[in-house]
């Protein structure tokens, strides 16, 4: 079942097993607020529900730089960690364990795989510094 909230703007996928997956939230406080609101909605529908464990499993973030990126330079800068094919030159994927950095030639950057917001914020400087190195 899919349930949506307007404030905070969020979507929840509710599975038969009882687990819930939420997306679209921008802060930890919004996650807590949305989980309470989803719980109340399900309770009003007549089900006995409580939140036992709240776990952030994936943080995704996106940013962009105001210049184009030379993705062929990215392979020189980060060597073996880059998955790039010139025939599919729209984006280049950098894998670092569970984290994935996707650099687009337009300057857009998408990052997924973080579990801790502080770690994601700390790595933001690295992500932008790499973008500075591969300016076109």
Task: Assign a percent range to the helix content.
Answer: 25-40%
How confident is the prediction overall: mean pLDDT? 87
Q: Which structural category do the helix and sheet elements fall into?
A: alpha+beta
The tally of domains stands at 2
Compute the CA-based radius of gyration: 19 Å
CATH homologous superfamily placement of the largest domain: TATA-Binding Protein
Distance between the termini: 46 Å
CATH-derived architecture of the largest domain = 2-Layer Sandwich
- Percentage beta strand: 25-35%
Classify the oligomer.
Answer: single chain
Number of strands: 8
Shape: elongated
CATH class of the largest domain: Alpha Beta
Low-confidence stretches: none
Give the ordered list of helices and strands: EEEHEHEEEEH
Task: Classify the fold: give the CATH topology of the largest domain.
Answer: TATA-Binding Protein
Instruction: Record the strand order, biggest sheet.
Output: 4-8-7-6-5
**SS element count, helices:** 3
Biggest pleated-sheet summary? 5 strands, antiparallel
Architecture overview:
This protein is an alpha+beta fold and 136 residues long. The protein has two domains: 2-44, no CATH class; 59-133, 2-Layer Sandwich (TATA-Binding Protein). The protein is 31% helix and 29% strand. The strands form two sheets. The protein has a five-stranded antiparallel β-sheet with strand order 4-8-7-6-5, covered by helices on one side. It has a three-stranded antiparallel β-sheet with strand order 1-2-3, with helices on one face. Strand 7 and strand 8 form a beta hairpin. It is elongated, with a radius of gyration of 19 Å. The termini are far apart.
């Amino acid at each position: 079942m899919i349930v949506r909230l307007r404030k905070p703007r969020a979507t929840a996928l509710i599975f038969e097993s009882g687990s819930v997956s939420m997306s679209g939230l921008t802060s930890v406080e919004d996650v807590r607020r949305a989980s309470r609101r989803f719980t109340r909605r399900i309770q009003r529908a007549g089900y006995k529900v409580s939140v036992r464990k709240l776990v952030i499993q994936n943080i995704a973030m996106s940013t962009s730089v105001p210049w184009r990126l030379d993705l062929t330079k990215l392979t020189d800068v980060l060597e073996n960690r880059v998955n790039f094919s010139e025939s599919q030159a729209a984006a280049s994927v950098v894998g670092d364990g569970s984290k994935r950095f996707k650099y687009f030639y337009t300057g857009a950057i998408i990052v997924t795989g973080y579990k801790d917001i502080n770690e994601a914020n700390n790595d933001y400087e690295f992500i932008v510094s790499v973008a500075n190195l591969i300016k076109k």
